[in-house]
Backbone:
């Protein structure tokens, strides 16, 4: 059996086999897919590319790769140096940004689906200053209790909502407990150093 025949057979068998596996072992399949989906995806991609190659769908690529190209040595050297230089530079950017990060710059982040902002009192988080904002950080969120319509000391469950963009998220806890949990999560990210990666990631996105 050639590789092309094997690829064709695999493509024909894969769909009914997947349906049978899903029907009889849905829970196990879900667990397996959660843990191994990358391996399965790579295998299917390799199998698809191999089948397409055997069918001649990449003949144009073979022709292009086999076409002789004459370049001066200085151009080839410059191209290789530029490629290695770019790869090195892209690798060093996060490292350099990491070294520039100061913990007191870390004063906002997304936690529990809400954007939080806080300040520091001496070298600790000011728990009275931590506030919830909508995801685009344009408005401070409004708090609404599920027990009463609105009052000063919010009891749970509560809803955090933005009057500007319509953002709304409910929590089965009081406002004080939600702020405490957010503060604990901020402290965890600082202690583990995760805040550095998040700061760098946000600076690159902006």
Residues:
């Amino acid at each position: 059996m050639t590789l092309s025949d094997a690829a064709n057979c695999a493509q024909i068998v894969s769909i009914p086999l997947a349906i049978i596996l899903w029907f009889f072992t849905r829970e196990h399949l879900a667990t397996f897919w959660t843990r191994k989906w990358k391996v399965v995806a790579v295998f299917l991609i390799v199998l698809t590319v191999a089948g397409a190659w055997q069918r001649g769908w990449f003949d144009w690529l073979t022709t292009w790769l086999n076409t002789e190209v004459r370049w001066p040595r200085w151009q080839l050297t410059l191209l290789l140096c530029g490629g290695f230089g770019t790869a090195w530079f892209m690798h060093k950017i996060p490292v350099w940004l990491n070294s520039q990060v100061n913990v007191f710059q870390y004063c906002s982040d997304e936690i529990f689906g809400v954007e939080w902002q806080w300040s520091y009192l001496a070298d600790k988080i000011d728990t009275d200053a931590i506030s919830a904002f909508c995801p685009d950080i344009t408005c401070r969120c409004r708090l609404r209790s599920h027990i009463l319509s609105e009052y000063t000391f919010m009891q749970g469950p509560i809803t955090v909502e933005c009057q500007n963009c319509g953002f709304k998220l409910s929590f089965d806890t009081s406002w004080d407990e939600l702020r405490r949990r957010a503060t604990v999560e901020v402290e965890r990210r600082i202690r583990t150093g995760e805040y550095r990666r998040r700061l760098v990631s946000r600076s690159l996105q902006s």
About this structure: The first helix runs from residue 3 to 24.
